[in-house]
Batch of 2 targets.
Target 1
Amino acid sequence: MTGIVGFGAYLPRLRLSRASIYEANKWFAPGLKGKAKGTKALANWDEDVNTMAVEACRNIFGGGQSRETVGDLYHCSTTHPFADRLNAGILKEALRLTDDTNAFDMAGSSANAVNAAPVAMASAKASGKVSLVVAADSRRARAASAAELSYGDGAGALAFGTDNVLAEILSHSRSTIDFVDQFRQAGNDINYEWEERWVRDEGVASFVPKVITDALSKAGLDASAIDKFVFPVRFTRMDAKIAKMTGIDPERIAAPLHEQIGDTGAANTMIHLVQALEEAGPGETILAVEFGGGASATILRMTERCKLYAPHQSVSALLERGKTEENYTKFLSFKGQLDLDKGMRGEQDRKAALSTLYRHRKSILGFVAGKCRETGSVSFPPTRFSYDLQGALLDTQEDYPLADRRGRVLSCSAEALSYYPAPPHQYGQVDFDGGGRVLMEFTDVDPGDVEAGAEVEMVFRVKDRDERRNFTRYFWKATPLSH
Amino acid sequence: MAKGIKDKVAILGMGCSRFGERWDASPEDLMVEAYQEAMEDAGISPSELEVGYFSTHMSDVGTGRGGLPMAIALRLPNIGVTRVENFCAGGTEAFRAAAYAVAAGVCDIAIAVGVEKLKDTGYGGLPVAQVGAYIPQWYPAVVAPANFAQLASAYSAKHRVDKDTLKRAIAHVSIKSHDNGSKNPKAHLRNKITEEQVLNAPMVAEPLGLFDCCGVSDGAAVVILARPEIAKAHGKSPIIAFKALQVATSNGWEMQSNDWDGSYVHTARIAAQRAYEEAGVQNPRDEISMLEVHDCFSITELVTMEDLQLSKDSEGYKDVLDGRFDAEGENPCQIDGGLKCFGHPVGASGIRMLYEMYLQLNGRAGDRQLTDPRLGLTHNLGGQPSQNVCSISIVGHLDG
């Protein structure tokens, strides 16, 4: 049997209140008031599509899926940070996948994540390895637009394989039609959207029922067999209308998360599907639909084995830990749409030596330390000489990943002197369970959130942005556990 | 078996520029100001100088690199000039190198010059430094206040000193230095301050406020060294000689292993112990008459008192509050105002510390002269608590 063998999602902690968007812009766009309800997930300044994708995959691995078995990695987004540098290659290093991984970036549509299932499945079936499909998006919208109220940031991931299947793929149907409901020409960063009524009535209502009917027929199922209908669509009540058109019980519609996290683009169906997979019991049937450039429908059935699996962090836990942000200018700044004065201290050149990055890719992107096989002492970064007070030993270190270990803060401070995108800049010394110490930044924290003795876990984040050459550097940061 | 530096090297002359926001002076001007005083004090001509060591840290914003800036500014007679750099401890490294040259007998007279021009960056605080190609890719973009503030975080946690008490103790460190600095005409900051001011000052790096941080200053200092018999021949009296000169450098243990608890400076303890042994000091609390320590931040000075064995572990804050290190205390510290108020032109600071010891031992410290000091200690720290260079010198009267 081939099917889903792991699933996980990621949502940034911050939730921008839509009221704050409306309040800042009501002088200009009073008509936004009707949509200014709830919140949307907002990537912190140091989160992007690559970091969120890494975290979604880590939630799969934390759920027990072994990383050594991964053969393929598909990274779907409309906002990959790099247009020419394999973004999936960054994920591969951060996730410590093997060098023979087939890694691909899939771009150009916010509706091709779940749609990648047949490709991932075929590869998994042929190789006997696991195919990982991850989707993440972090889109910009024009200030005071409806899209600004709607767009949220997040990531979702599915692992396909042949062993220990949690959900069997019963069928898949796809239509490809150049129906331009929205577009973004290469080189631009804001979408242009056509009239909603046309998109809804001529697009969604036309393509979606066809793929659903086709998928049901391929699976040999009646619409009444669908236990969960996953179709997060930006038009209100459109999910119910499609259910009615195709004979699905409207009670089976998976609750949309738009009110809390917004429309997360390429990750949107994936995140909703992950939540459905988390909640479904053995034997239950799920239908997941993506709309855009046509439509796709995928039907899955949960196996007995699904009872044994849970991602490291569930969607409901990720929703639970959200922290409301009311500051609209902070949001604009994080999105790179407000040029705040960085001061002279912000002028420092952040050029990354690429030869250095390559040489140390395991330590920088994979957060791999060296553990001395003689004394057990851990060094980060790894060094040829291991050292403790007894003396130095040459070439005794072995790879020792720190990313999935917890730590405790030895000392810390918060400073407001230097330029930092989200002041104050908080950093300190972290002692890892099992050994090792690293001076590192704390993220997703407010002043007072970190103290000596606090327990922390590691997250993959943007370290710096070289704004002169447009290059993003990544590294790991610490964030409080009980948070 | 080597016997160390004790009584092998004497100070022939010293000079120090006025420290501060020297908008009027280039780094070359500052060197000339200190050099003129030192040469006059030594009573020698430039042709008698045989070797030079030059300390500057932020060469990119100040003088430029190498030994040239010193040789050209002072128009030295084509002697060998070598730049030494070891973070904020570079000043001590310059006179250590000069002392070694003299002690080795390869020359009679050596000169060490330290200078820093920090106020041409356009902003307050220390300039932001580049740290190579690898480190910035994983290491936080650290700033000195938050590096040293972590001493406070770890010290509070380890010794269970509540934050308010520690904040008051470090406030006392700064109040004392401002009192002392007010009597020093060359000091950058000459105002007295109150506890209320310190406690209510803007926060720079939790828990360090504005008054917990030393001044960022322009300045230069110069020392000319010779063997004691040469100093005698030049009519120096009393002869001020080195009793100890020790440097300890971190090897990554504090930074990478889990054994260091973050509440003290490991290298300072090592350098202090070695220096006391070299100088024959049995009981520092009783024998050290005065000291200039690296008070880049108030908390650094407080933990340094424990590192130098002047306070027992966990009792430094009590001794500070009891006034042990005030001008009238048992071990007067920062008599000239310290980094806090005399100022901190990085490459010059180690030599500036020695300058105060030299003045005091010669009875030339003016309004701040201590009664009959015997041994003076300088403690010059470069880097941050978790990895650094710590140098300690002890000076006193020859054969004293």
Note: The longest helix of chain B spans residues 163-181.
Target 2
Amino acid sequence: MLKDVTFGQYYETDSFVHRMDARVKLVLTLLFMVGIFFVQSFAVFGFVAVYLGIVIAVARVPLRSVLRSVRGIVVFLMLTVIINIFFNKDGTVLWSWRKIVITDEGLKFAGKMFLRLTFLVIGSSVLTLTTTPVDLTHAVESLLKPLRVIRFPVHEFALIMSLTLSFIPSLIEETDRIIRAQKARGADFDTGGLVKRAKAFVPILIPLLVGGFRRAEELANAMNSRCYEGAKKRTRMRVMKPTWRDLIASIFAVVFFAGVFTLFAMRDSWNVITWLYY
Amino acid sequence: MSRAEKVAVPKTELPQNVAIYAHGLDFTYNPKSPFAKQALCNVDVTIEKGEFVAIVGHTGSGKTTFVQHLNALIRVQKGELTVLGHDLSVRKPDLKALRRQVGMVFQYPEYQLFADTVLDDVCFGLKNFGIEKDKREQMARDALELVGLDFDSVKAKSPFDLSGGEKRRVALAGVLAMKPQILVMDEPTAGLDPRGKEEILSLVSQLNREENITVIMVSHDMNEVFENAKRVLVFRDGRLDYDLPPRELFRKEEEIASMNLEVPSMAMFLNELERSGFAIEDDCLTVEEVFQAVLRLKEARDA
């Protein structure tokens, strides 16, 4: 049951995007996230959709797993849309009932908000679908390296990140086992009021916490016994190297976003593209 | 044999002495997904009350899946399963009543301790099953003394301050306190020293003999299976391959090896004796019993 919860939803296959340097993927994803906020019209959202479509096709990840990531924020998405519809009172009134007013501007704004958030999540899910958590932490470590100048412990930070990630599956498994064991002793997690249900989790959380400390201690011992001493003179087995793929992808992405930014900058001054805007 | 050909025993006609009745039990993890894995396949077995049954098999053979069915931690997908008269293939069996009667001891049960004191932890199950407060302490005392701990000196201690072996006994007491009729154990001796193993096993045997508790024990240690169980179920790839008394099972040395299981040292010795023409009765399984049997053989030959 709990095992169905997938974290770090890496989709294993061989594709152009999978083979890219994780650092480049991370930077391009950040660029995409910033870029999506400069999109101001439905027509440009259309272009973004085409761009995402191409990326997903090249990454060879199934559309279903991409859309699954949207499912996680569906409540948040609906709430945002509803609030924007009801509270934006600009433009022509389309429908009203007592104090509730729906305007055309409100609908447009809510629609854009919906697309923006959806594309944001889809875009970042392409990164996590095509990059293993390990590569991702390496990328973070590598990109944060300049911070060493101000004595930020980059290596330790990355180590904490990757240890956290690697503990998650085993903790999920352990939780599952503890739940079963307490259920076998008659524990009931499904009935009763809020307080009773919250209390029912104590017999799960305490053994889980104790187990977590035990694992951490064992891991620390294992690392010590293999003479781990942090960042000093440590080399990597797999050194990340940007290749021609990263160059092509970067050019593709930069050209696209240059277009998006240009359209954003010109949105008021050039009347010819007002049809794109509205 | 297809399922239709089998004579299905209607549930109402199960004899009183049947503890567990499984018929055509199938189970698949993550059904209808790319990760679907069939863990049980057409398992038929009847276990009577008071039996001591060991379940063996390689990792991933379905033995744990099977035992988790017994107190409905895993629900029946296909087939029939009746445990102590509770039909588990229905949509809503009486889980509380069932789980009180079927005690389940998981691997490393000490990892599930959580309460402030040993007494509270042992009482956790009793409380959940609605036993009145004044009766709980007496039942906890009985259970802790049964597992060989001194009630008055441990009751107020934190379970986390005990040694590994003591923790396991407290966890075991937490299950035994409910006075289950069936005791299901998943590798109860894993990670214990030889003496701790011996103590747990003799306790379980004693419960089986004196209290007539039905014992189902999953184990990887063929020696302990051989000495304790009266019947061994061998699972392979989700199927129940063998269902035999230990002596008969471990005569099949080649089949056992092909399943990546070990032949217990005593069975090897007995098999060797048999091949040299010295047959020993099938019910002699422990060192002491075999020793006596060998003495008898010698006397018979000398006479």
Note: Residues 1-7 of chain A have pLDDT under 50 and may be disordered.
